[in-house]
What does this fold into?
Amino acid sequence: MYFFIFILDDNDELYIASDYPYRYSELLKFLSTICTEKTKDIIRKSVLCKSLGGNPLPMLILTNFLSTEEKIHNRPAIILTARVHPGYALLLVLEKLIVVMLLKVY
It folds into this structure.
């Protein structure tokens, strides 16, 4: 597969992306659908840090929150990251699938 790009004006700026950006608002919408009163015993959302633009960056914790605090703190952890910047839409889709699959286990 190949294609040609013709720029008509030397002063034009051209941006090419392999995928459309996954917007921050889309991430917040997804999180609001999975972090509900019904799922509070298995998934919780907190703020990991803030972006350079001041947006809170969410962190999800999936575990059995009905366990004792000592058991929760002594469990092994797996850390997944996906949204390094908006161009990594495919990685975010994969992470969303992982989260949804983990929620179905419960």
The longest strand covers residues 43-50. Residues 24-105 form one domain. The radius of gyration is 19 Å.
